[in-house]
Amino acid sequence: MADPKTILIAEDSSVILNLTKKILELQQYRIVSAKNGGEVIKQVESQPIDCVLMDINIPVKDGMECTREIRRNADPRIAAIPIIAITGNANNYSMEQFREAGVTDYLPKPLDFDALVRVVKQYVG
Fold first, then answer.
1. Per-residue pLDDT reduced to its tens digit, 12-55
2. Where does the record place the Response regulatory domain (predicted)?
3. What is the mean pLDDT of the segment spanning 93-98?
4. Which residue has the higher pLDDT, 2 or 68?
């Protein structure tokens, strides 16, 4: 069997992080996490990541800033990672702003876990 795909969950709420992690582990994904934007960049540069679930409101560097930084990475494999924005204030951003930052797709909070699994499978398989 192929190695499990690795999903990076960038989320500062441990409740949301743990729920999301459990749901995706049940789908046989390997989960790594980051509590802030600084950790996100370290994680994507230190190991192969197949998809990032990016909370927009995380400390240090927000999700939009992290997304732009990932898209500018010199390694084409890193720059192309699918990034799914997760936000409780999607109304604060237009789809245009998400696209400009390099967001692949987005999910509103509170998270619909069926939609989460569907979107992750769409980009990661």
1. 999 999 999 999 999 999 999 999 999 999 999 999 999 999 99
2. 6-124
3. 87
4. 68
Domains and their CATH numbers in the chain:
6-124 (3.40.50.2300)
Indicate the pLDDT class of residue 125, thresholds 50, 70 and 90.
Answer: confident
Chain centre distance of CA 117: 13
- Residue 65's alpha-carbon distances to 19, 27, 76, in angstroms, are 25, 29, 18
Q: What are φ and ψ of residue 2, in 5° steps?
A: -65, 155
Helix residue spans in 14-94 (DSSP H): 14-26, 37-46, 63-71, 76-79
Do residues 11 and 56 make contact, with C-beta atoms less than 8 angstroms apart?
no
Q: Which two tokens stand for residue 92?
A: 């604060």
Cβ-proximal residues to 125 (8 Å cutoff; 6+ apart), any chain: 5
